Amino acid sequence: MPDPRDALRAWFLGPRAENADLLERLVTEALRDHVFWRRNFHPEDGFTISERDRRAPGYEEAVATLTQELLGLLAELKRDVPFFSGRYKGHMVFEQTIAAQVGYFAAMLYNPNNVALEAAPVTTRLELEVARQLAGMIGYDPDAAWGHLTGGGTIANFEALWIARNIAYLPLAVRWAAADLGVQVPVGLPGGSTADLSALDLHALLNLQPADALDAWQRLKAAAPPDVVARTVARHTLGTAGYQEYSRRIAATYPDPLPDSVVLVAATAHYSWEKVVRALGIGGGQLRHVAVDAHCRMDPDALWETLSALARSRTPVMALVSVCGSTEESAMDRLDLVLDVRARAAAELGLAFHLHSDACYGGYAAAVTRDAAGERRDGVAIRRDLGGPWPTDEWVASAGALAGTDSITIDPHKLGYVPYPAGAFLCRDRRARDLVAVTPPYLAPAGGDPTGEEFLGRFIFEGSKPGAAAAAVWLSHKVLPLDERGYGYLIGQTALGARRLHAALAGADLGEFRTVLLPEPDINIVCWVVAKPGAATLADLNRFNEGIYRELSLHRPGGGPEYIITRTRFEHPQYDGAMPPLLEQLGVGSLDEWRGPEGGLVVLRATVMDPFLAAPPPVPDHVTGFVAALRRAARTAAERSDG
Description:
Elements: H1 4-7, H2 20-39, H3 51-54, H4 57-77, H5 98-108, H6 123-138, E1 146-150, H7 153-181, E2 186-188, E3 194-196, H8 202-205, H9 210-223, H10 226-235, H11 238-253, E4 262-266, H12 272-279, E5 287-290, H13 300-312, E6 317-323, H14 335-349, E7 354-358, H15 379-386, H16 393-400, E8 407-410, E9 423-427, H17 467-479, H18 487-506, E10 514-517, E11 525-531, H19 538-551, E12 566-570, H20 579-586, H21 591-595, E13 601-607, H22 622-642
Parallel strand pairs: 4-5, 4-6, 6-7, 7-8
Antiparallel strand pairs: 1-9, 2-3, 8-9, 10-11, 11-13, 12-13
Helix pairs in contact: 2-5, 5-17, 6-17, 7-9, 7-10, 7-12, 13-14, 19-22
């Protein structure tokens, strides 16, 4: 493999399209190869479009219309967002790798649909290979895990909770099916002992570890003919019966009711989780946020207190969602500590639940921890090779703990630098996928196993899905391996660039204004507030920072701010743990004011996905340029607010 310090400049088209000749050559090669394939597929069929057809007036008119409309589209697209530029520090997107662009273009010409093998015999296999690569990167056993690509993080998160919910209620289905079949099914308990499912009360049945629940299901399958077990269990699943009927069955069997199950999420969790619990019928009221600390990471002590309170009220926990790369700050929960709390909750409280990591943004950063042989690297080796202070040993421990989760979601179209749409869902135990399986007969493979590995449509929420996305991710992984030679180096450079920007903002001369920063980011999103002299209230400060954002945002097509950022708003109660040090540094407002109906705090945000931000000259110095632009934006915002 080439030295990544040199290869980095071959991975992208470049902010000035410096690699235009390379991209053009590869795209042309892909197009010509596709044309060759068409012309050699049953050449005896002859031609459908003749040369005489191509000279007809109607044909030429159609070509003229196509050409004219394309020129209009190209003109419009120049009013789009310059994601490729070092001046863009807005949302979680940069330009894509050349490998991803060419892979997508090449497969797009074939238009494969990865819902079924017969519609995508090549890209389906590429998608499964991509899932194995991602599983290996985070530490899952690729032979035991299972995963696939999705249309984005929201769909991937939906599938994670869909499976988690079905695992949570699986013991009930197995217990009722075992009674119907007249067999006994032993199961492991959180404390380490075993019992027969029929001897457990409702609280115990809803507090089995995911692996133990799946093991019980496996034992039932071994105790009776498989087709009989499948039909019997299906009758007793939540998916078949629905919530109303299931509630009636539970009430009839277990007259001592329990509170409704809850889903715990870090307070920094993406808003998609609210959508997911609503869509699954769990209910937005059952989504409980766990407090974060000053670094915007889930507070392990707050998690323990939350679990203890739920144990006292005998409230089942359906799932716990930890965040690896929060949307606003790129904060990574200390997942190693979260795992410790989970183990303690099982041992001391008898609580068990599905643990999911929402790593839609930060999952690819785990590549930093892998060497060329796929082995784990420690913090000392990573910092030495990257030549900077990132990552900390605690960060490495947290990334390594991803292997201990039950499922994970990762978005290749974020830190994977591939085109939309490309999310990914992985579960550590492939048996779980059967809990959501549906088999449409018209998509079953001819002469093959209708429940086989390559029949993706059976196990996923989506139907039609672009095989081109799988080709894009696969080719990008081939060129940029998921280790220190590829994505590890690429993402490491963005993290170092974010630290350079953070340091520059901390020491920036903004005249009468000053910056108040959140702690150094865990990955590569920098957040800060600009303090203004004379701001008497948080409302005044918020209006001022909104004004800065307006000066540095692309809020209309074709707009031309010097630099482009975004902003967010810290609100109660999600950010209670992060606010005290911020308010103290700002010297404006109080916690009561922040928590009030007109409260909240506007926070400016720069996403650093540009791997060249920390590069020395002659690369343009966009850190110094950004600080100067921020100073000008602050003055303009102050003049407008004072006027």
